[in-house]
Amino acid sequence: MAIIINPRRVKLMMVAATLVLSGCVAPQKTTTAPVCAIGDAMMQTTLYFGMNRPNGPVISPAEWQAFIDKDVTPRFKDGLSVFEARGQWLGNDGKLAREDSKALLLIHGTDNESGQRIEALRTLYQQRFNQDSVMRVDAPVCVAF
Question: d(Cα 144, Cα 5) in Å, to the nearest integer?
Answer without folding.
Answer: 62
